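Example (one chain per record):
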Amino acid sequence: MRADHEEFILRNAALTASACWSLSRSFTDRGDGTPPLLIHFVIAGGLLFHRMTASKLSRMKFDSGLLKAVTDQPEIIADMQSRMENNVENILSGLQLGSASGLLAREATAYGPSFRALGTLLPKDVREIEGPGGEVLAAAKRLGCWFAEDPLATVATRLRVEF
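Predicted structure:
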């Protein structure tokens, strides 16, 4: 794991866009077919841009669920509110790049914008990324699955965040 994980990830809008795509694809595939809302991505930013959390989430099983992640690793939610708030701009940059590059499509909903993953696979070079970038993509896939399983209010309660 790189010592400058957060800096490496935060300065890489393409990786953030790919992580947003991964979250959206798994959310849509696991849920009822609707894409995740903007707030799902904002919440994910507080988890994906934190080295320890991304590393731990990337190694968990898809069927584990958010409740197990938080129960087994309670430090995941430490300072989550401020991590989420501090990373909003990075998530928005990734969503903007993802939309502009054709990875994501923005859709209007009654609850605000949502972002649908376009295509079924990321480019091979992105899919097979190793190291901290690969952990972020793997964690994003798991978060998408877990976020699709629970209502947004439940996700917020489990992670102890408000919006």
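Caption: The longest strand covers residues 104-109.
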